Structures are given as C-alpha cells and as structure tokens.
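Data card: per-record layout.
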Amino acid sequence: MAAYRQRPVAVTAFCVLAILAIQAFFLKFMGQTTICDCGTVKLWYSDPSGPETSQHIGDWYTYSHFLHGLLFYGLIWLVAPRMPVGYRLALAVGLEAAWEMAENTPMVINRYRESALAQGYYGDSVINSLSDTFATIVGFFFARLSPLWLSILLVVATEIFMAVMIRDNLTLNILQLVYPSQAIYNWQLGG
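The structure for this 191-residue chain is written out next.
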C-alpha cells in the first residue's frame, strides 16, 4: 500500500500490464492464435457470425466489452466506494481478463457454438481479446468521468442498438450462455 501511495499511476500501470500479459500468455497456452488465421489484422470486422469474428481488433462485440467497463466501474464503486481508482481499474481489468480467459476455454467455446450466431466460433485471437480488455478500460474511464445517468443511458441504448443491428447483445449473450432459449435462438437466426 505504501508503494501505491507514493506512485499510484506506476503501480496501477504495472498491475494492468501484468494482468494483460497473463491474459495473453494464457490464451496462447490454450492454443488461441495471436492474430486471425487469415493472416491480416483488420481494425473492424463487421459480420457478427462470420468466420473472422473475434479475430481482429474490433467487431460488434467490442461494444459489449465497453459496457463491461461501465458496469464494472459501477459495481466496484457500489461495493468499495473508498477504494482508490487505480485499485478499481486493476480489479476491473482483472475481472475482464478472467472473463476473456474463461471465454476461451473449450467448455465455453463449445457452449457458444450452440447459439445461433456463434456456430463457427473457435475462440478469440490474442489481439482481439486484448482489444476487448482495452474496450473495458475505455468503458471504465467513461463511467468514471460521466454522470451516472449517461452511463445507464449508454448501456440501454447500446443493448437496443446491438439487438436491432445484429440480433445479439450482452444480455442475450449471457442469457444464451447460462440458460439457452429456443425462441431467442430462432429470432437470432432471423426467423
């Protein structure tokens, strides 16, 4: 704690970078590719159910990871309002990295494949996973600097926008992962 009080930015940066390194190492250890098997790195990949989803820097699900940052900031603030913001950031990054690592285990990948939009899903590339975590960091700082009402509005608007545009969003993703619904599956297929 003494080192944190003397150099909070340096300690936070070290913790965040260490978490990102662990995340990248874990994904490589689990057999995930560093970049897309296609051999290119795209800034944006727009087909939510295409073979290169979760392989490039950004895709439709980047918005969900931004929402993770908003939600993690709010949750950590509610649970530990006196915690220094650097600790909160490190905790949020740790939570996101834990999700990214869990999401790329064979059990979760296979569960995702049962959903309508992820039948060809084989996990995230390392660059996509790290970009998702960066989106969480951006969301965290957005929540920190914005009024609460704006963060809430953004969560709701983003969920609606994604549902309209790609028939998927954070809420549906979690629901289909935990308690799959045939009605949602059919709707996501466009029926």
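Known properties of this structure: The two ends are 56 Å apart (CA to CA). Strands lie at 44-45, 58-59.

See the next section for split statistics.
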